[in-house]
Amino acid sequence: MKKNLVIVESPSKATTIEKYLGKDYKVVSSKGHICDLATSGKGGLGIDIENDFKPTYRVSKEKKDVVKELKSLAAKSDKVILASDPDREGEAIAWHLARELGLSTEDNNRVTFHEITKPVVLEAIQDPHKIDMDLVKSQETRRMLDRIIGFKLSKLLQNKIQSKSAGRVQSVALRLIVEREEEIRKFKSEEYWTIGAEVKKGNSTFHAELTKVDGKKPKLANKEQAEEILAKVQDQPFVVSSITNRKKSKAPKLPFTTSTLQQESSTKLGYGARKTMSIAQKLYEGVDLGGTTTGLITYMRTDSTRLSDLFVQETENYIESEYGSDYKGQAHKKNSENAQDAHEAIRPTSINYTPETVRPYLTNEQFRLYSMIYARTLASLMADAKFNVTSVKFLDNGCEFSASGQVLIFDGYSKVYSKYEKQTDTLLPVLKEGEQMNRVEIKGDQHFTEPPARYTEAKLIKELEEKSIGRPSTYASIIDTLQKRGYVTLDKVSETSKTKYFQPTDQGELTNQKLQEFFKKIINVEYTAEMEKDLDNIADGDEDYIQFLKTFYADFEPLVEKAYQDMPKKELERVGRTCPDCGGELVYRNGRFGKFISCINYPTCKYTENADDSLNELEKEEKICPECGNRMTIKKGRFGPFWACTGYPECKHIEPLKAKAKPEPTGEKCPECGHDLVRRVSRYGKSFVGCSNYPKCRYIQKAPKAKKEEEASETSTPTEQTTQES
Prior knowledge:
Elements: E1 4-8, H1 11-21, E2 25-29, E3 35-37, E4 47-48, E5 54-55, E6 57-59, H2 64-75, E7 79-82, H3 88-101, H4 118-125, H5 133-161, H6 170-186, E8 191-201, E9 204-213, H7 223-233, E10 238-250, H8 258-269, H9 273-285, E11 287-288, E12 293-294, H10 309-323, H11 355-358, H12 364-380, E13 385-396, E14 399-410, H13 414-417, E15 436-437, E16 439-448, H14 457-466, H15 475-484, E17 488-492, E18 500-504, H16 506-519, H17 525-539, H18 545-566, E19 574-578, E20 585-591, E21 594-599, E22 608-610, H19 613-619, E23 632-637, E24 640-645, E25 654-656, E26 664-669, E27 676-681, E28 687-691
Parallel strand pairs: 1-2, 1-7
Antiparallel strand pairs: 3-6, 4-5, 8-9, 8-16, 9-14, 10-13, 10-15, 11-12, 13-14, 17-18, 19-20, 20-21, 21-22, 23-24, 24-25, 26-27, 27-28
Helix pairs in contact: 3-5, 5-17, 5-18, 6-15, 6-16, 8-14, 9-12, 9-15
């Protein structure tokens, strides 16, 4: 008996959906895209520019067996249903599958699942539709733009300045990072002063800030100006001049979009964009909940904050049942100007799948991300938090000081979201107008203006979204590419910092400089954002994609020709020594992890060494690979230098540069599991005692309390270490 064949993108999704559909359906995976533009034709573009930008597609080498298997299954099936992801890329995958399997685009053979739950899957399978060819043309246009810009600019930069690549969106993101660095370098810090009062009443102490002098906002540029004010207010009555009470409401944040999820995951969980999307993908495709596999969240590539009416109703009932009717809020929606509203916001597939009930079936990373998505969605449908806010003004010889405090009177949505958005009450004592405050300490503080901060991953994503550069679904790959090309680094500013910031490398700055010099018209925020609008118009059927490509190419190609003529070629810097393997000159090159030395005859000769003299000294020990007997060399990687076999890629043996120090035993046993207690060092450089059986046992020995009889000069006591790290 023949079955209906359903083709999805991922194997895990296929397994989940096949369970829902039953014995009449066979669900298989295409494992992503099966086709891409060929690298044949003029310039290796795979695009016939002179023939209305006609593309040539090829089945990728690694997908030939997949396509062969799909053709065989399709021939044996009654019906073939294309169920790739519900977005531009998914629509293009469906179209490529239709072409390779000989299916008609006029047939209703396309279904989309916005969430992987049994009711939604069963409903969608009964309502197939045609492939959206406008959406396909939009994806095809974007892919051709990326190929033309990427191939032509990358070839140019490789030839002229030894940079590895450029791209329509990646180069604009690089420009933002470089421009921020230039702002920091040009920044000149300026001195300024503030004056504050520490006011005491009874057991309460609060802070008031100088806000006006003789009715005007003070501008204190130096110590002398601050001292002039201090002399004016010292030993003068500090009198309450006005008290204002008001109520304030704070609304919950909207449900997650792809971009806001990536931002919040970065700041609250410490997950990068790529990691966030990988975890979310698994939550969407399905998790085994003790014998029942179901998707826990809706589709995670979306610009929309919309929630379905059915989900809103279900959640409102849940809120009323769990927290009471006072906690019910209302659904809000605010999409960006270029948002594609085909999908809902990222939300739990059911509000009844609480984080606590699904925790046994999730990894720790999945649980943390799901908990945040759940809390954000639930909070978005809850009532506002309410506060009583008190503002107090004080007068002191013509100088006005202000203080404010607030008290939470109704927690509203913060009942479920306080973990991710902490609220602190600032309390003021009971005061009366005309009351004179007796215990007041007034002092001036010196400050210096600071330069703009470098981009964190979250802030860069926010900037890209606000400026309509690329799509949230591409941000992870953009960030990844910039690092892989050696254009930027993402590093902590200090050993104790948890936050990482983007910083351009020398090669990144050179690449940006040349692109701005010759391609400023194309590689800029405004042009890239306008291009995204054009792609949306093509997807909506409102713009002809061929005419759009012709207009773009007429602007772009003359710039490429001029750059080849006028851009000077950067000569490789000579080391002054010859290659020990082939006798060619050694030159400096820029790699992903900084400067290194290689043979000028690369790729014929693949000899490399470090540009760092200290590492070269270590290399003199002529370490031999224990696996194949070849010489080992020191290479730099993401986590620093390491020993690597020169026989790569045939031999992939690597070793750490220095042997990792073993934890020192204390001679005591763990009171919880009986294993040895050892001395460890935390990420912050602090020593502590913990169990050697970590992470199975997380026992940490508390530091002893300081004794009262200790010398007064001993001002510090050991602190309790709360986190164990291996």
